[in-house]
Amino acid sequence: MKIDLKRIAELVGGTVLGDDKLLIKGISSLALADEGDISFFTGDRLKDQIKETKASALIVREAGNIYKGSQIIVRDPYLAYAKVAAMFAPPVPRFDGISEKGIIEQDAKIGKDVSLYPFVYVGRKSLIGNHVTLFPGVYIGNRAEIGDGTVVYPNVTIMPDCIIGKNVIIHGGTVIGSDGFGYARDGDVSIKIPQVGIVEIEDEVEIGANNTIDRAAIGKTIIRRGVKTDNLVQIGHNVVVGENTVIVAQVGIAGSTKIGKNVIIGGQVGFADHVEVGDRVMIGAKSGVSHSIPAGEVVSGIPTMPHRLWLKTRGIIKKLPLYLERIKTLENKVKDLEEKLK
Fold first, then answer.
1. 166-182 residue pLDDT tens
2. In the chain, at which end, N or C, are there fewer CB atoms within 10 A of the end residue's CB?
3. Domain that holds residue 112
């Protein structure tokens, strides 16, 4: 497939500088691009690669003199790259129809144009929507619901009664609806608290590989519309994650925590249970969230604090040995002065 620059510019809301009839066959990085490819430039650190790139066109924020080929001028080259990459991305491979090597319980309901690979299991009274793709090894528990257009990659487990919305993407190895971690102590013995709730994932969500999203103890664990999670994310029972929030790899969210809308959570952040995080909060990588955070805050650290304060404390830590020596020197001077004044 080849697409001319004019059409690409219309897609990303950009302006063509150069030949708008130039045909593009793909998109690649500056270093790997070949003739017929379009690439993108987002910062000065890649200027040297512009001189060497073989790309036939570039997506840029502003016109430059270093690159002599055609350019598309846009406000956000990285966002434009995402949209153009989607144009050239190969479609999700689909098994033609429903494999005879799958197991579908008789009272399950299957929609139109469904692709069910071999070794899929669909439980009793489950509902599979239209245009759904289930890859090999997918387990759909009894009474679970999968919305239209959803893609579930290999070896995903969706436990009974869980609800998955429309156009959701769930990557390999993820488990949705496993029991939440709930126990009551009876002396030295841990007594399991039955986890009788469900997980509900709304539309347009993407769940990374090897996520675990626990069912609620009572009620629902809810992942709101447009949430994106990276790989290896743990979401505990009764957690609510607000719309369009982004969660990076290895985050752990303890039970009954409430995350607001449009929150960005860096890698390896850990949350205590029952905290609330307001809308548009940004949390730096490796932070420990032990208390609630108001809307709009940018925080880091263990425990979290305003991000700029955290940066200052990080700079001070490596100087602590020097400060200790200075304090000892000052203490000795004070001691000498006290001796002289006696």
1. 999 999 999 999 999 99
2. C
3. 103-308
Angle (nearest 5°) at CA 293 between 292 and 298: 150
User: Are 149 and 14 contained in the same domain?
Assistant: no
Give the number of domains in the chain. Answer: 2
Count the Cβ atoms, other than its own, within 10 Å of residue 227.
25
pLDDT tens string 111-141? 999 999 999 999 999 999 999 999 999 999 9
Residues 81 and 211 in one domain: no
Burial string for 269-282 (b: 16+ CB within 10 Å, else e) reads: bbbeeebebbbbbb
Q: Does 307 qualify as catalytic in the annotation?
A: no
Q: Are residues 209 and 251 in the same domain?
A: yes
Which whole-number Å values give the CA distances from 206 to 55, 85, 122, 165, 203, in the listed order? Answer: 31, 17, 21, 11, 9
Name the active-site residue from 237, 274, 291, 307. 237
Beta bridge partner(s), residue 70:
57
Helix and strand numbers (H, E) in the chain are 5, 39
Distance of CA 283 to the CA centre of its chain: 14
Q: Is residue 314 part of a domain?
A: no
